[in-house]
Amino acid sequence: MFIEAKQINKVYFDKNNKPNTVLKDIDLSIQKGEFVSILGPSGCGKSTLLSMIAGLVSSTSGEIIVDGKKVVKPGKDRGMVFQQAALFPWMNVTENVMFPLRKEMSKKEGLERAQHFLKMVQLSNYPSHYPHELSGGMQQRVSIARSLAMDPAVLLMDEPFGALDEQTRSRLHGQLEEIWIDTKKTIVFVTHSISESIKLSDRIIVMGTRPGTILTDITVDIPRPREQHRQQIAALEEQIMGLLKTEIDKVIDEEQAYEAGS
Amino acid sequence: MKPAVKRIIFFAALIVFWELGSRFELWHETILPSPVSVYDSLVAGFADMTLVYDLAASFRRLLIGLVAAVIIGTGVGILLARSKTADETLGTLVLALQSVPSIVWLPLAMMWFGLGEGSIIFVVILGGTFVMILNVRTGIKNVDPLFIKAARTMGSNGLDLFIKVIIPASVPYFVTGARLAWAFAWRALMAGELLSSGPGLGYTLRYASDFGNMSLVIGVMIIIGVVGAIVDLMIFQRIENNVLKRWGLET
Q: Does B150 touch chain A if contact means CB atoms closer than 8 Å?
């Protein structure tokens, strides 16, 4: 297995020192080149799990292996795209994309590489723009180019299109699918949108909440491009919706109980 | 109406009222000299070069003091932001000293550095340093954690992360710190000069006061205000606005 999470548990202690289990007994394996979505309601720990693969968060117990190596800290073999583009505002587009490259190659090589990936996200006309001059969708594309430029084995995406409007999101779905087919990267994509996960991924890991566990692992065998298979998409969407409904009810019940108690 | 036009009309009206008040002797010339006599004493001051030398001397002290304040402030600010122990000890001292007007250090400074340049520059440095320290500290502590996370996933950590990401990310605070340091240093400089020997704008102001030359007193006050406003508006606010815009902190 290319990415393997074994018996991952994550416990936080809140301010009253009460343990709060965020992730419980997570076992997950992902193959090289797979596009996997992690889908679940907010609070299910899906972003925490992704941050663990990135090496930004440590687990309470269990281990994660990526490409044969145990994850202990962040590394360039795992590129991450966040919900906010996280571009450095003091650098222009090209400089941002070159940021992860500056130590391992000459400026000239880095520049060529940056240009190549900016072309891939269709932003080759904006090399000297600064982040504040770009729309949210464009910023996110630069952020994707920046991650791809360091040629990671895995691309981790944490609700990357969550903050964008519907049309932009839909266009970026198409672009991401093309990039994935071109580069054959392994992509782990965290989302709370059922339709987004069906549209993009080979496999959907559905997570439940409180504590965060894996409910089910669905293989999406709808041929690409998927827009043409509306019926299959709708059927799958309904199936997942049913699965998640009890989970969402659980969140709402708990919130109401909390409000009533406070 | 454009703001500039409004401003011109406002100041013109103010000066006309002031001049008319003097002409109709609503107040006595020795208490509040008329704009015309203020203008005359300014012209005379510039013609015999006193005010030119004063400006040069004041700016020299200010520049030395401000540069030192920014350098010291940046260094200590970084220290406070990075070391919890330093913040809990030295940080508290800085906070306490910041509320002490720097001019009250002058008696001590005179004991240490004598009556001349040294003590004034010392007071100017103190005037600017504390506010710079506090801004740099805040800036470094307030760097968006997302920038740090993103940089770490791109293989940056330790000193590289600090120099390439944390420092540039806090530049807006550095600029605000420098701007406030300038404002405090300018006030400290004038106070210091009032109490010491010349040349310098503050010194000339006191000299004029000793000889009852109120029109020159007002003239120097106007120079102090105009210089302050011009430097703030033309230099610091301009840089600050550019930086805020570039850093996406202003829409």
A: yes
